[in-house]
């Protein structure tokens, strides 16, 4: 077409690949180049715990051409990092010294694990802040002889990694500084059923304690000392303390990127032609109105697709996401958490219900006419329908009884007046 | 051009007999017949759901196979794809049972199989031409047509009703 634009995407994770696919769909003739600092082709990052358990091989988690993702016509350069961006010249300098020219630039550099600086010995062999396929492969090798592991942090990543290790017959202790596991996704009392299931699956859980020091010998790490002096044996240590956006290479652009890259509703930064999406971008929560950065694959894809459409000239708006949103299954228990799940009891109406195999928490507005958040454990059917009514801030008064009884269905929204 | 067909719901024709659910579960069972399906493990499950509105009236609900399907984009395992026939399908071998699709489907139409621990949904019965729910519905509350064909038919029906004074 001659007038097609040249697109450069920094980062080949969820946001980058979703954007590349959306650009391909919107403008079949555009040049799409991607840079990845990793040494492998793009892959489904959330799948890497399965590399440790051996349930999946690296080729089975490969991304390009799988599911909705495009493969053909995208130039992916691995082992290549962006070191400098010059918005005036519209160029990006790579770690190979190459200067790449772009018409549209997407910053999809993702995030890096947060390593608490007050824990000694985190750079030791066998200590992982699990992020990459290469790290998972290394961990899988170590898991072939390791007898024990210590997980620092009680979030989903560590729980998934813990189960991968339990499957390898490794004794696993989960150490959580908060009073309870999954503290980002629910309140302590919401987590009781999951905690019981985890312990019944053989996971040892220590709450209210942090690590002070990681120690080892010539085979790498062998133990962790907690802040109360307890020593835990650990041939492997996993640090799961959240992530921070990767924005250092943008320092030359003049953008304020201390807490991530701010973007507008079209995922464009303050510099026209430069977009940002995924873990590295600042988005907003439609329920709380707050600016947030999230580390969720699903959010990154949604935002990346929006960015890709806009880059290809198809005006598209990103409707934001919840600061809290995740689903998974651990120890045989499925659960979903979304929206406001740590409510101010004086400013919200909270309903809980539990049975032997399920738990439900619903957080409504003070007036009781809006659903703001929920935790579903055991029974998670139709969770996406609830996500929809939370996000759209629908007046749910006529349907409240059905919501509380977990009986809401799409027909109530589509044919509700009949 | 052979246009893609969809399952349309004519809500006021549904009398809540649940025949669509039964025939769906059977056609997706291993044996493919009701008597053997009842004893099968994993248990055959329907991918269409007859629910009750607040008024008590029944309504059948089924996957819309969205053009820009949120479940497909959200999947962290690459298990969901769109076929050339524009059907959204979940590959059970790739599904890891993380329920991200359940979390994002705005219609609540992705099921969670209790025994297999895999997500499942309507596949529009690609092997038998017309979906089993549609062909089994005794009141034709479900129709399988292209969007153009269906809307033309609805327009003609409305015009007939208006001209004969039934619609007012």
Summary, kept brief:
The complex is a heterodimer of chains A (418) and B (168). Chain A has helices at 14-26, 49-53, 133-143, 156-167, 192-200, 297-311, 383-391, 400-404, 410-414; strands at residues 6-10, 31-35, 74-77, 82-86, 91-94, 99-101, 104-107, 111-113, 127-128, 148-152, 171-176, 204-207, 211-217, 220-226, 231-233, 236-239, 243-245, 261-262, 274-276, 281-284, 291-292, 325-330, 333-339, 348-355, 358-365, 371-377.
Radius of gyration of chain A: 23 Å
Name the average pLDDT of chain A: 95
The span between the termini of chain A is 51 Å
Helix content of chain B: 25-40%
Structural class of chain B: alpha+beta
Main β-sheet description of chain A: 5 strands, parallel
- Determine the strand fraction of chain A and express it as a percent band: 25-35%
Overall body shape of chain B: globular
What Rg of chain B, in angstroms, do the CA atoms define?
Answer: 17 Å
| H and E string of chain B | EHHEEHEEHEEHEH
Task: Please tally the helical runs of chain B, counting DSSP H or I stretches of 4 or more residues.
Answer: 6
What does this 3D model show about the protein?
The complex is a heterodimer of chains A (418) and B (168). Chain A starts with 5 loop residues before the first strand and ends with a helix. The longest helix of chain A has 15 residues, at 297-311. Chain A has 418 residues and is of the alpha/beta class. In chain A, a hairpin with a 2-residue loop joins strand 22 and strand 23 (333-339). Chain A has helices spanning 14-26, 49-53, 133-143, 156-167, 192-200, 297-311, 383-391, 400-404, 410-414, and strands at residues 6-10, 31-35, 74-77, 82-86, 91-94, 99-101, 104-107, 111-113, 127-128, 148-152, 171-176, 204-207, 211-217, 220-226, 231-233, 236-239, 243-245, 261-262, 274-276, 281-284, 291-292, 325-330, 333-339, 348-355, 358-365, 371-377. Chain B has helices spanning 19-27, 34-37, 70-74, 100-104, 132-136, 147-163, and strands at 5-9, 48-52, 58-62, 80-82, 88-90, 111-112, 119-120, 142-146. Chain B has six helices and eight strands. Chain B has 168 residues and is α+β, with helices and mostly antiparallel strands. Chain B folds into two domains: 5-63 and 122-165, no CATH class; 66-108, Alpha-Beta Plaits (2-Layer Sandwich). In chain B, the strands form four sheets. A two-stranded antiparallel ribbon of chain B has the order 1-8. In chain B, strands 2-3 form a two-stranded antiparallel ribbon. Chain B is 27% helix and 18% strand. In chain B, a hairpin with a 5-residue loop joins strand 2 (48-52) and strand 3 (58-62). The chains are: A alpha/beta (418), B alpha+beta (168). At the A-B interface, helix 6, strand 22, strand 23, helix 7 and helix 9 of A face helix 3, strand 4, helix 4 and strand 6 of B.
């Amino acid at each position: 077409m001659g007038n097609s634009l040249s697109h450069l995407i920094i980062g080949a994770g969820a946001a980058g690949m979703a954007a590349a696919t959306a650009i391909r769909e919107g403008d079949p003739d555009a040049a799409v180049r991607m840079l990845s600092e990793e040494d492998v082709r793009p892959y489904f990052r959330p799948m890497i715990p399965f590399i440790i358990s051996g349930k999946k091989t690296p080729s089975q988690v490969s991304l390009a051409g799988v599911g909705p993702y495009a493969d053909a016509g995208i130039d992916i350069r691995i082992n290549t990092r962006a070191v400098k961006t010059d918005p005036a010249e519209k160029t990006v300098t790579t770690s190979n010294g190459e200067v790449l020219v772009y018409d549209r630039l997407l910053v999809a550099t993702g995030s890096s694990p947060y390593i608490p600086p007050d824990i000694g010995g985190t750079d030791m062999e066998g200590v992982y802040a699990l992020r990459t396929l290469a790290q998972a492969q290394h961990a899988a090798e170590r898991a072939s002889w390791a007898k024990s592991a210590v997980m620092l942090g009680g979030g989903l990543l560590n729980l998934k990694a813990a189960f991968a290790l339990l499957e390898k017959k490794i004794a696993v202790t989960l150490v959580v500084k908060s009073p309870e596991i999954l503290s980002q996704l629910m309140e302590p009392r919401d987590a009781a059923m999951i905690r019981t299931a985890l312990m019944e699956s053989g996971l040892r859980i220590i709450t209210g304690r942090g690590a002070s020091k990681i120690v080892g010998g010539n085979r790498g790490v062998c133990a962790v000392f907690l802040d109360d002096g307890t020593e835990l044996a650990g041939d492997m240590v996993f640090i799961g303390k959240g992530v921070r956006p990767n924005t250092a290479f943008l320092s030359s652009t003049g953008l304020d990127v201390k807490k991530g890259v701010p973007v507008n509703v079209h995922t464009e930064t303050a510099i026209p032609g430069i977009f940002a999406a995924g873990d590295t971008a600042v988005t907003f929560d439609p329920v709380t109105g707050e600016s947030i950065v999230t580390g969720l694959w699903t959010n990154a894809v949604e935002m990346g697709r929006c960015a890709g459409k806009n880059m290809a000239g198809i005006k598209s708006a990103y409707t934001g996401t919840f600061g809290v949103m995740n689903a998974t299954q651990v120890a045989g228990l499925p659960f979903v958490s979304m929206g406001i799940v740590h409510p101010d009891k004086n400013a919200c109406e909270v309903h809980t219900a539990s049975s032997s195999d399920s738990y439900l928490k619903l957080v409504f507005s003070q007036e009781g006419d809006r659903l703001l958040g929920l935790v579903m454990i055991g029974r998670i059917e139709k969770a996406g329908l609830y996500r929809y009514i939370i996000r759209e801030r629908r007046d749910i008064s006529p349907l409240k009884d059905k919501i509380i009884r977990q009986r809401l269905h799409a027909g109530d929204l589509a044919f509700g007046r009949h | 051009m052979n246009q893609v067909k969809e399952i349309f719901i004519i809500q006021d024709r549904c009398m809540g007999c649940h025949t669509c659910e039964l025939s769906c579960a059977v056609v997706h069972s291993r044996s493919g017949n009701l008597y053997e399906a009842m004893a099968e493990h994993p248990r055959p499950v329907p991918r269409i759901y007859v629910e009750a509105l607040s008024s008590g009236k029944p309504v059948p609900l089924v996957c819309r196979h969205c053009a820009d399907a949120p479940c497909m984009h959200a999947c962290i395992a690459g298990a969901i794809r769109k076929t050339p026939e524009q059907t959204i399908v979940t590959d059970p071998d790739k599904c890891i049972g993380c329920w991200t699709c359940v979390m994002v489907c705005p219609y609540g139409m992705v099921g969670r199989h209790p025994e297999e621990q895999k997500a499942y949904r309507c596949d529009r019965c690609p092997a038998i031409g017309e979906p089993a729910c549609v062909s089994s519905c005794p009141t034709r509350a479900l129709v399988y047509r292209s969007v153009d064909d269906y809307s033309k038919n609805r327009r003609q029906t409305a015009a007939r009703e208006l001209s004969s004074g039934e619609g007012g």
